[in-house]
Amino acid sequence: MGFMANAKVLVSDPLAEEGLAILKKAVDVDVRTDLKEDELLRIIGDYDALLVRSSTDVNAKVIEAGKKLKFIGRAGVGVDNIDMDAATRKGIIVANAPEGNTLAATEHTMAMMLSLARNIPQATASLKKKEWKRSKFMGVELNEKVLGIVGFGRIGRELAKRAIAMDMKCVAYDPFITKERAAQLGVEMMSVEDLFRVADVITVHTPLIAETKHLVNAKSIATMKDGVRIINCARGGIIDEKALYDAVRSGKVAGAALDVFETEPPTESPLLTLDQIIVTPHLGASTIEAQVNVAVSVAKQCVEVLKGGSAKYVVNAPMVPPELAEVLEPYAQLAEKMGRFVIQIASGRLSSVELIYGGELSAYAGSMKYITRLALKGLLDPILQQPVNIVNADFIAKERGITVSETVTQESSGFKNLITIRIKTDKGEETVSGTVFFKGRSRIVAVGGYTMDMIPEGYVIVSRHLDKPGVIGRASTILGKCNINIAGMQVGRVQPGEHALMVLNVDSEVPAAVMEEIRGMPGIFTATFAKITSGKI
Ligand code: NAD
Ligand code: MLT
Model pTM? Predict the structure, then answer.
């Protein structure tokens, strides 16, 4: 996809001017923050990209109606207002701005914790009613108290640094972070059960997913210290609001600070009736700095994607860490071309794809998913009507019952690095291996088990034949007769006189009738024509 000069972008939640300016320089932008769902459904079909914060409900209906959508940008972290499956199925890139509001949310959590400990909001409200009740608002110190952090990601970690500076003792629970990583920051990792037992203040910083829904509930609250304080500046629903209400009323929980709610706004919530619960209307990311950061981040990513590039923080496709992007790009390009090539020289219905990454690639094992997706794109895009890209390739393979497996090994048949794609169809098996040399130059080094040295570009004829005099000459004559120039030729064989594989690089497309003629030659078993260029075949 080249630059979409007349691309149209819809911004349906408030976005900072700095982000809008980036968009306006490159594309047509409509800012419509007042849309009801039926209006959004009516107009979304005109747009190539949609940028939102958390208010717009980007559900399956909206995505279905967005016939031209290529990009959905979330100016913030949480993507729970976007139907990720629907977007992925349609190959729409969904990207967020995960770093822009980390410090804003961290500082808001600190503000909530301090306010909770010292009853600042309640005391403010009282004094503004002209009261002077000093004993009513007796607080507690945070010094030397235990802060239990559930979810030790970006915000959890920043929070720990600040709490430690205030001489709090920090403990954390996060199944995906190592003890060592936490220890480097002076934080002790423990089970969630232990954390609930020892913490004086508990704060949650996970996404809202099935595993974290109602993580804080009546049962877990019962195991907490009497007089515990609970904070949620992450997502409504991580805490069971009914259980929290009951526990505050009973005195088990001394107080709570909530920035997020199961239903927003929580107008009918009984939580708002309790003095011990302090609340803000989802203000975690609401700083001038954070809003500029997230707006600039999604706007840049949006323009990049509409230009045909990639987004930095794609949520629905595997990405490689920025520092590895340059190193891995030549492998990704090779894998895509190999995918295109192997699917065209195979016959039958594709049932499985095996990717084997060898040699120095084993050092990047964690990033091979990215390369596998591009290989799948190469395999599926030429043969399917629907567009296949890095976002939906995996989904489409699954939907079609194609098994995909990935192996990483040190073994690389004497090459510094080696990618092998082995596919199985209902008619048999085909294998292609390739390597990347110095400066990103790549070669296909084996086809069907025969050694080759083939540039993965342009037009190729692959034939299997009996290795006997005359076969290659006759094929050249047929092509010459039709004015098709042979740019390169290779023959792979195991033993003279036995089966051999011939690869001819030609300068132009080979008409079907010419391929028929080649297939009709004596000694030829199969002959296929492949285009290793992008686009449908
Ligand atoms: P992050 O992805 O950096 O961190 C989330 C952490 O949760 C990860 O380390 C992950 O391993 C951990 N996690 C996942 N499943 C878990 C589980 N079952 N138990 C414990 N930990 C688990 O995200 P972040 O940027 O730190 O944001 C954290 C949360 O804060 C998100 O829900 C985000 O949407 C929310 N947020 C809210 C505001 C706001 O305005 N209130 C602002 C920014 C972020
Ligand atoms: C986020 O997930 O980034 C926050 O909840 C802030 C927001 O909704 O903008």
Answer: 0.82
